[in-house]
Write a structure and sequence with these properties.
Length: about 290
């Protein structure tokens, strides 16, 4: 597979959380159990860093403050390898479950931890499970007030857990008179409906050729930069299996985990990648 050197540079992103911290497991795994379950995030994230190093790309790591506290050397490697460190909140609480005051405390705490460990300004934020929606857009004002430069928290799709279907598909400024950006996960449009193509479970569900076609369309036809995301646990088919999960949760979480790593390697070879900061904020590729 040959990488195209023409067209926009896309943003590669990783949501750094462990398998037991996903929102879908909230009814099954308590936060107290986080300390007792086998941790896999460190070894899996190092594997991802090795893959990115071999592919000669840089990425943005949206990292939980909880993870950073427990694995500070992982944060140091992310920075040492030249990647961007960004914020995923402290302990993966959906914004829909927080008051404005609780949200402010959560993002402020996480930002301080990440900046203290990395020695770098943290400019970006991604909400747990893309949980900034039409009813809590106040979160964007708070992010701006707390010093973030951009968010990647609105998914312009219709989904049972998240999404604003009529939100802009590409980077926009949601706040009047503020240079604050919202950078949605990439979607493809058929008719009047947006469909996910920017990673996660959809990337594992569809054959790879569909994702490749979608990103080619976005880059070459729409002349836009795409945003792709995945999680460290998605390249880990050997992770401990949780018991008692409902069929939908079990299917979504475990589907095609054994294929994910090779698909990520294909994606790296087929397209051009860099950090969110470089693609959308610093914009070094513009002429």
């Amino acid at each position: 597979m040959s990488k195209s050197n023409s067209g926009p540079i896309n943003a590669m992103t990783v949501d750094v959380e462990d398998y037991f911290q996903v929102s879908a497991f909230e009814p099954y795994v308590t936060k107290r159990q986080w300390y007792d379950l086998p941790h896999r995030v460190e070894i899996n994230t190092h594997r991802i860093l090795d893959i990115f190093d071999a592919g000669n790309i840089k990425a943005t790591f949206f990292t939980l403050g909880w993870i950073a506290e427990h694995y500070p050397t992982l944060i140091q490697r992310i920075i040492k390898d030249g990647h961007e460190l960004a914020c995923h909140g402290y302990e993966h609480i959906r914004v829909t479950e927080q008051t404005p005051a609780q949200f402010r405390e959560d993002i402020s705490k996480a930002k301080k931890i990440l900046e203290s460990l990395s020695g770098k300004e943290v400019k970006g934020y991604r909400a747990a499970s893309y949980s900034i929606c039409a009813k809590n857009l106040w979160a964007l004002d708070i992010l701006n007030e707390e010093g973030f430069k951009y968010s990647s928290s609105i998914y312009p799709v219709k989904h049972d857990l998240y999404g604003i279907p009529d939100a802009p598909r590409f980077i926009f400024e949601p706040l009047v008179d503020h240079n604050f950006k919202e950078i949605p996960i990439t979607t493809i449009t058929f008719g009047k409906k947006n469909f996910p193509c920017g990673g996660g479970g959809f990337f594992r569900l569809y054959p790879y050729i569909i994702s490749k076609w979608a990103f080619n369309h976005i880059n070459q036809k729409e002349k836009q930069a795409g945003v792709f995301y995945f999680h460290p646990w998605e390249i880990d088919p050997d992770q401990p299996r949780q018991k008692g999960l409902d069929l939908r949760t079990r299917t979504r979480h475990y589907l095609n985990l054994s294929h994910m790593e090779k698909r990520i390697k294909w994606l790296i070879k087929d397209f051009n990648w860099d950090t969110m900061e470089n693609v959308f904020i610093n914009k070094p590729y513009e002429t």
